[in-house]
Amino acid sequence: MNKFSYFMPTKMVYGQGVVREAGASLALGRKALIVTGKSSARLSGALDDVLAVLPGEYVIFDQVENNPSVHTVIKGGRMAKEEGCDYVLAIGGGSPLDAAKVMAVLAVNDTHPMDLYKMGWKTRALPIVAIPTTAGTGSEVTQYAVLTIDEEETKKGLGGPDLFPRVSYLDPKYTESLPMDVTIDTAVDALSHLVESYLAKRATTASDLVALQGIALWGTAIEALRQGKVDLETRDALLLASSLGGIAIAQTGTALVHALGYSLTYFDGLPHGRANAVTMRAYLDYTKKVAPERVETILELLGLGSTEAFGELMGDLFAAHIGTLKLSADTIEKYVTKAMLTNNIKNSLGEPAEAELTEIMEKSIL
Q1: Which domains does the chain have, with CATH numbers?
Q2: Half-sphere exposure of residue 150, counting CA atoms within 13 Å on the CB side?
């Protein structure tokens, strides 16, 4: 008999033109801290749409880098506090959205970001509006935020129910300005969320329904991604699949692909989605030994006949990068050791140990 809990408090508003249509309701308070990266919010047109209809006061923090740092969220949180902001409006990919969530906490809590990992926080974070400009992280519908932690030489996530955005506005046209390599990187990030959620120990009947719908939707974009010709209809499918991935991992968390990918991003500079692509085929091979029906379901929904075909897909998508990543045995050992410290490993089917993770790394692409 089924038994599970399901909590997804974010209101999603989806479709072309939804930001301007929101009008005054876009504001959740008197004064907004608008959090963006250096260019994506402007290039996508999302910032212009926001400023055209946003009532009340605002200040803009546009210094979020890829893989945001502790230093950056401290600066943003301080700005929100000094400017008297009472809500946060985040525009961008996963980095601005994740950073904005931590800033929303720091704006009302006198603490250091590193202490959030140990002790959490007392005062509820400022309410958050999220407007994604990539189809990848699903951060607009999760309670997670991931920061780069230099002291530990890794990326590390934190979470809390008040980090769920109060409302998210999703418009596929905001992803049209993305370069093709970023489109592919972020799309594969979304796929990894969907796959890992379905193969997670914490998966439930409810999360499975979401993940499977997202995988099927993502599969409709495969040929367009392979050809590097992604029209707005395909971007629509990818953005919705990405959000479904976020909804799924909000319930289940992620698994070993993310655990290994963090080091590939931190030490080798791989974008998050590409880092996940490195190990996904080998991850499916490993998981097929313990959950063959689930892996076969994923492949069927993607229209792929085997894990070999999945590997060929990843190879096609990242053909320009094949052979560029060379990891020594010592480096693999280091990455595996770091991965074993994460909760992602405990959430993976099959009780993977260092030997299994090492084999996955050794068999991976790039």
Answers
A1: 11-173 (3.40.50.1970), 179-362 (1.20.1090.10)
A2: 5
